Amino acid sequence: MITLKGNSIYLRALEPEDLAFVYRIENDETIWEVSNTQSPYSRFLIRQYLENAHQDIYEAKQLRLAICLNNTLEAVGLIDLFDFDPRNNRAGVGILISNENHRNQGIGGQALELIIQYAFHQLQLHQLYANIGSENEISLQLFTKFGFQIIGTKKDWMKVNNVYKDEMLLQLVNNN
């Protein structure tokens, strides 16, 4: 049986009570570069999103889970499967640890490992991919640690503060 619980974290579905947490993340301009966000989200829109979060991945083509600490139950980040393509058995994966105090503690690694297991065993996906800015060395190290391979560079892909930046395309193929 697949569990979405790690040594110090667990992954859970978003709840209406996560409104303030998701609102804070979606409106944090310091992470808009990695989330491809271009404008703020209203509480109204996020409330609507949370009301529809009950849709399964086959319906919504996305699965967003809260990353929570086992000891305090506090939500400290989000992990997403997006662009879910059941015909070709693939999805994109993205992860964000919202508070810098919780970064570099293995939380992202545990969450990524859990979502990989879920994607390959529960959803029977053949591959996962990630889009990571070429300057985001920590995320590149994290994903390659779990077997993702850099398969390409999207040149001048993102315009950030009037500067074009490259984005790396990483892929993990399930050969089992």
List the strand order in the largest sheet. Answer: 1-2-3-4-5-7-6
Q: Count every helix, treating DSSP H or I runs of 4 or more residues as helices.
A: 6
Strand content: 25-35%
Kindly report the oligomeric state of this protein. Answer: single chain
Unreliable sequence segments: none
Q: Give the helix level as a range of percent.
A: 25-40%
Kindly provide the name of the CATH class of the domain at 9-125.
Alpha Beta
| Major sheet details | 7 strands, mixed
Describe this structure in words.
Helices cover 28% and strands 35% of the residues. With 176 residues, the chain is of the alpha+beta class. A seven-stranded mixed β-sheet has the order 1-2-3-4-5-7-6. The longest helix is centred in the middle third of the chain and has 16 residues. It is globular. 22% of the residues are buried. The mean pLDDT is 88.
Please supply descriptive tags for the structure shown above:
alpha+beta; seven-stranded mixed sheet; 7 strands; globular
